[in-house]
Amino acid sequence: MAGLTNIKNQALTERIEDHLFQYILDERLAVGAKLPNEYELADRFGVSRGTIREAVKLLVSRGVLRVKHGSGTYVASLMPLIQLALDLTDVRLMLEPAIAELAARNRTEEEAQRLTEYCDAVRRRIQAGEDYLIEDMRFHWYLAKCSHNMVVEPLMPIIDAAVVSIANITRKELLTATVDTHQEILSGVLDQDPQAARAAMALHLEMNRIVIKHAKERSEKTK
Description:
Blueprint: H1 2-26, H2 38-45, H3 49-61, E1 65-68, E2 72-75, H4 79-106, H5 109-127, H6 133-146, H7 156-170, H8 175-190, H9 194-221
Antiparallel strand pairs: 1-2
Helix pairs in contact: 1-3, 1-7, 2-3, 4-6, 4-7, 4-8, 4-9, 5-6, 5-8, 6-7, 8-9
């Protein structure tokens, strides 16, 4: 039981780390900006001060935050996580267009129906103004399952991590585009049109890459 508790605590800490990084981006906090104190952040995210402290430690280890004892927590640099998101996008561009192509070739009718449900779930969450990250991950995960390639499954943790990192930067700017490109990917798979599915996935990822590059350029200007 202790092991399960540790896993849950680790997952919560990593989720709050993502939320904290998203907060920094949303508030457009520049390098050197001071974050609210632990009490305020704990209240904002609905977690304990200990969880906030652990999430801050993770961002400190990544070079994003700097803690000045007796003074507070400050933004050190956004570049580490932005660069990670950019690198992960490049890896996704190597993998996911081909995965979408295979899904269009190999999916079953049952899988096509399930993939449609996952695509619709993303659209509903976005249109309702709700967090759609879990649904987004599920759509990409199931698309890989539809490829029927046994080598793809071990790669999914990388893709899942990429979806999270990229969404932290792009989700506010690509809401409509996410709905549209997901639908284009789905249409290619449903029509069993491999080239259309590949092209739609490539477009989906290229749009994310452009937004991340712009975020990187903004971050470099604040140095």
